[in-house]
Write a structure and sequence with these properties.
Length: 354
């Protein structure tokens, strides 16, 4: 029994090896077939989606323009449905509108707009039809993107570091034929740092690289770039304000916006009403620039000064510590919510020592 079992196993193994050899002889043919089938699969998918979603044949040109009419994000417009997606027009070139600065509140559709542009350019250069009613695309040598907040903390890099490494690469590698998409560059650091870096990057792309660029930002300060740089143009994604609420229209319009509607968006996101109202109060103080004794904006309304002569030594120490902490915070990198948390912690500590 044992020997017949062994013979069976040996035989089985021999047949197995023989089969492998037979197959491997045909490997190139099998690979060619697989390639052919996958290519066919991809082409049929593109043909089908072009038909179903009413895509258009792009015109590829040798000049440095990108002109899209009624362009849509291929994935989002499918998810949202044809009627709910708002199409947009994009015109970029290296003579007149080289850099589009797109401002608008969070959730207004800035990132979608940029990704849409990249998708359409890549689809067109693949040989596909594209989701737009008209598309003229001056061939792009590379698409450079700095988008999303994907952080590489596991690799030991902070979000800001990753952002700067990527932008560094873009500035080194991009050419006049490239398409550059920058989404909220500078967000990873304090406001003033962020604005300064973003500003300098935009200037370099304008003056030296001259690549077609879309730069989405919530730093409305960057809209001033268009005052000094002829090929930088401002756009914004429109929203409609109604009874302290905002309605997103998703339509790209010429001109910048200085409104960020951050608090309204926070409200939409479900932050409790008391917190939202308090945030409005703080915002009002900041806008009215109520300053403290040494010229910093106050986050809370100034209370009438209390007589401090009767405070215990202990109490005074706490107050001094608190003053030091206030001195140490960087207002520029603080969100209103963080400011609020900070304030409430300080108040708690004052209460405890009372
Ligand atoms: N053109 C559009 N039509 C309809 N909905 C849109 C459009 N653009 C964006 N949206 C919706 O708005 C959401 C936020 O868009 P996003 O581009 O991330 O905004 P932002 O980058 O300005 O914060 C998207 O997830 C999508 O649901
Ligand atoms: Mg965005």
């Amino acid at each position: 029994v044992l020997s017949s079992d062994e013979r069976r196993k040996t035989l089985e193994y021999e047949i197995f090896i023989q089969t492998l050899e037979d197959i491997s002889k045909e490997l190139p043919r099998i690979e060619r077939t697989a390639k052919g089938v996958s290519m066919l699969d991809a082409l049929i998918s593109l043909a089908l989606v072009s038909l179903e979603e009413n895509y258009t044949r792009p015109e590829l040109t040798d000049d440095n323009t990108i002109e899209l009419v009624d362009a849509r994000h291929p994935v989002l417009s499918k998810i949202k449905g044809y009627n709910k997606y708002v199409p947009n027009d994009i015109t970029l070139d290296t003579e007149d509108t080289q850099i589009m600065i797109v401002t608008g509140p969070n959730m207004a559709g800035k990132s979608t707009l940029m990704r849409m542009t990249a998708h359409i350019v890549i689809l067109a250069q693949m040989g596909s039809f594209v989701p737009a009613s008209k598309a003229r695309i001056g061939i792009v040598d590379r698409v450079f993107t700095r988008v999303g907040a994907s952080d590489f903390l596991s690799r030991g890099l902070s979000t800001f570091m990753v952002e700067m490494v990527e932008v560094g690469t873009i500035l080194k590698k991009a050419t006049r034929r490239s398409l550059i998409l920058l989404d909220e560059v500078g967000r990873g650091t304090s406001t003033f740092d962020g604005i300064s870096i973003a500003w300098a990057i935009a200037e370099d792309i304008h003056d030296r690289i001259r690549a077609r660029t879309i730069f989405a930002t919530h730093y409305h300060e960057l809209t001033d770039l268009s005052l000094t740089k002829p090929r930088i143009k401002n756009f914004s994604v429109s929203v409609h304000e109604f009874n302290k609420e905002i309605i997103f229209l998703y339509k790209l319009v010429p001109g910048g916006t200085s409104l960020s509607y951050g608090i309204q968006v926070a409200g939409l996101a479900g932050i409790p009403e008391e917190v939202i109202n308090r945030a409005y109060e703080i915002l009002k103080n900041l806008m009215e620039a109520e300053f403290d004794d040494i010229g910093r904006p106050r986050l809370s309304k100034s209370e009438k000064r209390k007589d401090t002569s009767q405070l215990s030594l202990f109490h005074t120490n706490t107050r001094n510590e608190i003053l030091d902490e206030i001195d140490a915070i960087d207002i520029n990198s603080l969100t209103p919510l963080e400011a609020l948390n900070f304030l409430s912690k300080l108040k708690d500590r004052l209460k405890q020592k009372r």
